[in-house]
Records
---
Amino acid sequence: MSDGGGFARLPSAAPLRDRDVAEPMAILRERGQREVFCGLTGIVWLHRKIQDAFFLVVGSRTCAHLIQSAAGVMVFAEPRFATAIMEERDLAGLADANEELDRIVERLLARRPDIKLLFLVGSCPSEVIKLDLSRAAARLSARHSPGVRVLNYSGSGIETTFTQGEDACLASLVPEAPVSEEVAQDLLVVGALPDIVEDQFQRLFAKMGLERVSFFPPRRSGAIPAIGPNTRFLLAQPFLTDTARALEARGATRLSAQFPFGAEGAAHWFSAAAKAFGISQERFDEAIGPARARAERALAPLRAELQGKSIFFFPDSQLEPCLARFLSQELGMRPLEVGTPYLNQELLAPDLLALPKQTRLSEGQDVDRQLDRCRAQKPDLVVCGLGLANPLEREGMATKWSIELVFSPVHGFDCAADLANLFARPLRRRAGLKV
Amino acid sequence: MQLTVWTYEGPPHVGAMRIAAAMQGVHFVLHAPQGDTYADLLFTMIERRDVRPPVTYTTFQARDLGSDTAALFKTAVAEAYARFAPQCMIVGASCTAELIQDDPGGLAQALDLPIPVLPLDLPSYQKKENWGAAETFYQIVRALAKNPGRTKDASAPPLCNLLGPTALGFRHRDDLVEITRLLAELGVGVNVVAPFEATPDDIARLPDADFNVLMYPEIGDQAARWLEKTHGQPCIRTIPIGYAATRAFIAETAKLAGLDPTPLLTPNRSRLPWWSRSVDSNYLTGKRVFIFGDATHAIAVARVARDELGFEVVGLGCYNREFAREMRAAAASYGLEALITDDYLLVEDAIDRLQPELVLGTQMERHIAKRLGLPCAVISAPVHVQDFPARYAPVMGFEGANVLFDTLVHPLVMGLEEHLLAMFRDDFEFHDAAGPSHLHTAGSSAAKLASDRNRAGRSDSADTLYPDATHSDDVRLGEVRSDDARSGPSDSAHRPSAPPWSPEAQAELMKIPFFVRGKARRNTELFAAERGLPVIGVEALYDAKSHFSR
């Protein structure tokens, strides 16, 4: 399954041409067995973020089983997600499948009057049988408006990997934003963040003198910020390729920066906004200074712990290159291989530029070959999914579950040390255990 | 389409994985998209397996659909064979690949590998996990155990196979040890255990045994029937869960093997009979228990609950329709209609309606019981990480009976404690809202503490055997459940027009011990609604009590 694999050199016109290293960074592209979640998994955090939205997966028993396995105890509350499990007779006739879907949505909305936004989420089987969920969404939207809006996106594993589900969801939400006709510049922070992180960011922007700041996705579906040519946006997550494209199509301008992980990453990210909005260096320093100093103080002991340790990333969330940048630049770790399911070199250019040049970047996956490379390199810490972690631990490697990096608050100055601790804890635990 | 948030069983290919992961020397190539690889973590996380399950996924993508997914599958099979060198391969498709109809069996056969390659037909849109496991095991047995068994020396001890133990099974690991010990003591040798840790060569040796012991019909029934028909091996079908069933199992096995069971039938092999007869257990009499799980465990535990602990079984059911007939027959013997459903909302409704004093079920019933404020213990798969305890905890055999006694009794308030509670329930330090004195906290914070402890995984409990072992304590510490505070579709349906409670009646209600309070509230409201009372007073409470205790 190695067709299409092998090393590829970046074309000289790629954004990395400005690297101050002699050689362009080599990227290993692999196409073999992937060991990653599909985009449906994003529902687990997206439904917490948009508090009046419901996510209805149109899929199979496998989809339902995946989500309950990923969501853990969350499914035992009455959660705002569910699966419409397709059965034999739904496959026989698409007309019937549409009727069935209408019936299920009817029942669901009758039971949950608190729902204002319903996402129909496509899955592998619904894509393969070509069940047209965009038409279904339009039909259902017309039927249930104005109380409920119905949108659709695909979280299928044949099209999306893990965090790409969030990208697809947010991209589907962009057309719902009112068109901004304002002249005054607005700042939009894009990507689902824990509320506490949003609040921290909001305070820092306010100190810098930026008041017209909103977040996307919003916490309530009725509060989607207006978007137009006056919108400047900062991505808070690196995996939002399609969302960024949709925002640009609305005339919004993306501000390029390192992603806000660690003290330096966060400072770089905030400074991109400061520059774009003409905020003086002095005011910027004054605003972020205390938070930055606090983060650096908190990181110092962790640097002592992690300095010189090697790390190997299996692909998971597309956060890998930014995390590797943080761990190498700010904590002195040595990234051996940084795997990512998809590498958007444009969005990640500032982070990629700051990676040590001997780092091996890999895009896509052939899990067995990657395990071979990992075993050969014997890294001090392996970042991988839950399916690989225990087997690698048994082989003697320390591991960090990658999923925790997506579920925990890790962005910005005040989470910098928490983020570093996620990597330090497995090593500390190994050192401490006497069994 | 079926709307679901949670499902008792995964798709059939997960059942096939449970067989492949349990065995040695078997590799499963699954034609499936990348998302399906989540299933690996069921094994590595829930069961803490330290190797990856022996499964290769083709992880085809949308762009492959237009070109050649069949070639992708063949490459995956060839590479998996080269890398893992299995003695046998099974191949199949998950739900998405089933739709693209690539015929994994035919493609794999075309590679002409020098090992058995078994195609699996796993209809994802009709069948579920247990069916997939049973079917996979059956196909493996049918393909590999073709040859007749060797004729044994007449003087050699009788041999049996143990069928059914597999990966992600509820206490299979420990049941296996317990049953193997019992059989050894009886003088029966174990020829092969399958699928648990069996190699393809072991499967080929299955016909060497004199008879089979079917431990888990959900997994092994089909294979056992085939072995009976093809190789004439009789099958022991008594499930040795509980004291009496264990004795029946021993007697049946001894008879079949021509051995003397008496040494194993002496009293005192298990503590359960005396523990149950000792006076402290008096309070267990007639406790109303609701039981739900896989059919085998639910039926067996119901028998233990009624015959060996003196409970009253008020509800019984299972999620696996394949065993609906057995379940209906069992339920009828308790004068009940079996609840056979894979919709947990119906199970929740039934529990809510019946207001049992104890719920025995799966992880889902544990959460339902928690929501309803009822004591609970877990007795069946689907499994959770807590169902793989570090220590030895079988549910089969005599030790299993001991474990079951503790499991079914610990969630309840102990006998003497119950009397004390009733006697002192109005005492200023002992009423519902008061916290435990040693915590030096006021009532409300004690309740919070209790619930925090609850959330913290109850690691402070001396008995974390079952996650809800400390549950009743938590409730006693002051968690006053308000039926009305609970939201949800099922709740209002039962009492659409219950009149309000007078403050005096509300106060009186709070004097009733928490474990019957829900029932008392419900009965009184029903009673009052039926009679059209404008308000529920103290009199109505006692009128209802006498009405319902007829």
---
Amino acid sequence: MPDGSTYEPIIACCWMPGFPLRVIAHGGVDLEQPVALASETAAHPVVLDCSEAARDFGVEAGMLISRAMGCCAQLEVLSCDVPRVEQAAERFVQRLEALGAAVQPMEPGRAFFDAGPLLRMYGGLPGVFAEVLGAFGGDTVRVGAGPNPFVAWVATRHATPRGWLRVEEGEARRMLERMPLELLPAGADLLKLLHALGLQTLGDLASLDVHHVADRFGAAGMVLHALARGEDPSKLEPRVPMEAVAERLVFPEPVANELTLESAVQMLAERLADNPRCVQHAPRALVLSCVLASGGSWQARRVLRVPTVDPRKLALAIRPALGEVPAAVERMELALEGFTPRAADQRTLLGPEGDEDGNAERVQRSMRHVQEALGEDSLLQVLEVEPWSRVPERHAVLVPRRSTMADPATTAEVGRGVWK
Amino acid sequence: MSSALRRINEPVPARVWLDAHDRPTRVEWRGREEQVECVLDTWCVDDAWWSDHPVRRLYHEVQLATGVRLVLSWDMVAKRWLAQR
């Protein structure tokens, strides 16, 4: 392995252009024809992505669907099925991870990884990229590599479909010189301003004095100036690959009845609780995915307040979401995410001695949680009524503890008035 | 009393054994028989005689051999022993 002190990473980017559109159109729609992917917003759906044929008619991302239809009468509009795209994006990343890469996922269909550790495994960079391209079969994936993520991304954009392009560190600035400013991760307003100042290419921006850029655009300008010079200080933050902990259920016929769905969720939660991962770890979130009889899919994610492997609590957490399922369900999947060691459950209510403020806040927070979970009247407090009485049961009573309850000394006076 | 309030430390029926001077010596409370070590205090209450639920009790505050303190009372209306903390 290379020495850690001299190791220079080879940042690689794997990209499938128009990923969501390809996923939704897969197998049923010809992307050589004018096709647009519409957002799920019911009121005013907009174009998320479109085919090249649609672009030829003037359709572009961000355009209202109604306007896009005006541009191209034969435009076929597909509704974006977000859960389906997310599942496909996960498979995209998993394919890279299966090659041994530590992957940092970006938006669906794009991910970065360090190709350096894979060089010996696959006999050099061409071997690595051949494996990557081979992993995606006939899909039009492009791969690029560079000394940092920005250069790798630009290289990827200029790679041919099912091809790869590497830019060496010394070549980065020269390659970027003629590239348009639109490659920079800057907002439309800033790009407009840069154009208004007569800057057209990354080379134009890179040739400016960095102090002048800092004076005019501040810290954001300095970052863009560095990127234009081919210097990207950001580091990869690969995710930790985890085997999915999920259970599936296929209904013999579509189910819309909420009680049946609740029973199914309960059954899946019980199966999940038996998973070996749940012996020492507990999930922080659970995701319910349903394939609908109407053809689409639906997904709900719920974050648990406290990580747990109790199947009853897991089912209880996701159950309210069942009311939002829009159609009869053909298949159901319940997955656990964000595992944390179960030792973390063993917390104490009170912290170290001397931390009275912190302890009081923790107690207050715990009481609010109890009331939130079980209702306002679930928490009672002892209220002294007649502490002087010779009849012991008159000394105090239990009263519901309201979250807005005033000082106990004051309420004791009130309490005396209502006793008997 | 408002329905939001809940009584606390209500007396529960108990069996009490007395000595020759009518002082408690043993008590069966919560299913267990305990020895009374000493009687700490004795008092009488005659209250709410004007209501439908008059309170006429003879109280003994006792310490059990286990160290627990109990208040035993002879209910002169219901003619039974009661115990509470």
